[in-house]
Amino acid sequence: MHQALREALANALINSDYYGHGGVVVKKSSDEITITNPGNFRIDVEDAKSGGISDPRNAALIKMFNLINIGERAGSGVPNIYMVWDRLGFPAPEIREYFNPERITLTLKLSADKKPPIKTADKAKKPPIKTADKLEAITEYLTDNPSAKASELSDLLGISARRTREILKKLIDDGIVSVEGGNRNRVYRLRR
Asked: Less Cβ around it within 10 Å: N or C end of the chain?
């Protein structure tokens, strides 16, 4: 949840129109967090939700955030926020675009409406996931998302980063997944 909130705030700062009306506003109540920034979407909202397209308004800010390992130009920030909220059992985030003045609002509800979040104790009670199921889970995730870091996949599977890299190596060796980037910016994608 922390990483998703950090990504949401970084997106608001990176994509703000600092010549527009108002500034970046973050409000937290007991049941929701809203992040509002001036400007409009430079890509279609549905494209932002599905990921893979990135058109940041402030290139200098994205470079600055990349230096501290926040955000990436892969267009995967918004889909990751949706994935985390779904995994926690919260309602899907809401993105609203307003005009005159142009503003974007992201609303993140904090009350579960579907399923309770998975607790650490619950994970321990479940039988371990088989390697074949882990391979399939990674493939499914990369089908729905254009790319992912090993840490995201590790969180998804609930296994160590080392074990995740071993599974990814098998997928790379089998020609299913490709790897791009260096150590800090390494992402995995399905081969086309």
From this structure: C
Q: Which pLDDT score, from 0 to 100, does residue 25 have?
A: 93
**Average pLDDT value for residue range 28-43:** 88
Phi, psi of 18 (to 5 degrees): -70, -5
Where in 7-135 does DSSP place strands (E)?
25-28, 32-38, 94-98, 103-109
Is this prediction's pTM over 0.85? Answer: no
Residue-range domain boundaries for the chain: 2-109, 120-190
Mean pLDDT of the chain: 79
pLDDT number for residue 26? 94
Distant-in-sequence, close-in-space partners of 69: CB < 8 Å, separation ≥ 6:
184
Of the options 3.30.70.980, 3.30.565.60, 3.40.50.2020, 3.40.50.2000, the CATH number for the domain spanning 2-109:
3.30.565.60
Contact between 5 and 84 under an 8 Å Cβ cutoff? The reply is no
Q: Mean pLDDT throughout 121-132?
A: 54
Beta strands in the chain (DSSP E): 25-28, 32-38, 94-98, 103-109, 177-180, 187-190
